[in-house]
Amino acid sequence: MPKKVRPAKNGKEEGPVPCKQVKMEIAGGLSILNFDSPSGLFESLISPIKAETFFKEFWEQKPLLIQRDDPALATYYQSLFRLTDLKSLCGQGMYYGKDVNVCRCVSGKKKVLNKDGRAHFLQLRKDFDQKRATIQFHQPQRFKDELWRIQEKLECYFGSLVGSNVYITPGGSQGLPPHYDDVEVFILQLEGEKHWRLYSPTVPLAREYSVEAEDRIGTPTHEFTLKPGDLLYFPRGTIHQADTPPGLAHSTHVTISTYQNNSWGDFLLDTISGLVFDTAKEDVALRTGIPRQLLMQVETTAAATRRLSGFLRTLADRLEATKAPLSSDMKKDFVMNRLPPYCVGDGTELVTPGGKLPRLDSIVRLQFKDHIILTVGPDQDRSDEVQEKMVYVYHSLKNRRETHMMGNEEETESHGLRFPLSHVDALKQICNSSAICVKDLKLTTDEEKISLALSLWTECLIQVI
Hints:
Blueprint: E1 3-4, E2 17-18, E3 21-24, H1 38-45, H2 51-57, E4 64-68, H3 71-80, H4 85-91, E5 100-106, E6 109-112, H5 121-130, E7 134-138, H6 145-158, E8 162-170, E9 179-180, E10 184-191, E11 194-199, E12 210-211, H7 214-217, E13 222-226, E14 231-234, E15 239-243, E16 250-258, H8 264-282, H9 302-321, H10 329-337, E17 363-366, E18 372-378, E19 389-395, E20 415-420, H11 424-432, E21 436-437, H12 446-458, E22 462-464
Parallel strand pairs: 3-4
Antiparallel strand pairs: 1-2, 4-14, 5-6, 5-7, 7-8, 8-16, 9-12, 10-14, 10-16, 11-13, 11-15, 17-21, 17-22, 18-19, 19-20
Helix pairs in contact: 1-6
């Protein structure tokens, strides 16, 4: 039974008490996970906990362990990734560092055992068996369809990138030292068993990864063993370590993670730069120079601090008054780097227009709504000072699954359309309605209405019904 420590009334810690633990059984014949909608998928993933309860009691607050006794679910989890999958994957060309890491925890430190260049299955298996090393496989959703299917739905649900790593550890071994991460973590136990120890965060909701020394983390607040079909959630900043118990062949689990750099602080940083740029175009006070030698001073003067405070109040007033979509690099980064919609085949049907052409009297509706964002920003094709604002419709239909979460910025490009700012209300109509007639779009001329509809249809973003 997992345990937690809570403060007593006198401020001292009292003994361990049971933490939230759920046992569940799934009736035979029911679908293992619900892929009908993003919310349905998440609810089925954490079942029997309800999403409302999860976000009220656990999200960013404390760990949740869901232990299940269901052979069908265990079999499904095992199908997501197996140790034996490595042989065929290595045949596709996997490389150390990029696709796989081989490591072991030795005396509280991570020892990396990677070779150079391409990873071969026989060498991986040798290090696994003889050196008792953990094999970490990066972003398996690039190759495993069911993980793509799950993570694509979760990206729609969270509105944030969702990555994953698989960890395969032999019996009586540990791959990583105690550490905490900068992401919200969902652990799915796939094969074998894994013994986990969780500790109180030293940095709640941490913004970076860090290894922690054993002598600094104290005693575990939770300790338990995961079996196939079990799920574990813990917030970013939670210190943790895990090992495969002796006597077992191996353990395989997948770590699904999200909400990296997705805090209010990140959103404020992203929003404020555009807000300052827009306000400075209208407010001459923001365009006046700072005092001479201000940058040479050791400390900022009280007068300068008061001036900055005044500007921040001006920006806050402007922010509350605006109704236009905020220019957001976070939005663009998300849609550029996320998974494309899940599909069977090569995905050409996603990016090939089909059905009837839209006309003025056509009823149209948005397709792939969860894969589209609307934002306003300066005209990126103009380099002069008088940059007109444009409205951008970005989408992820043409994103490449093979590069998801791999940090290949040079291989990442944005896909979408741009329109004059005068089109923003018409685009909001399409985004916010289940269906709309082209002639009812808030544009001046019929030609503009048809042109907008044709542009969206050509990009496979709307369909005629």
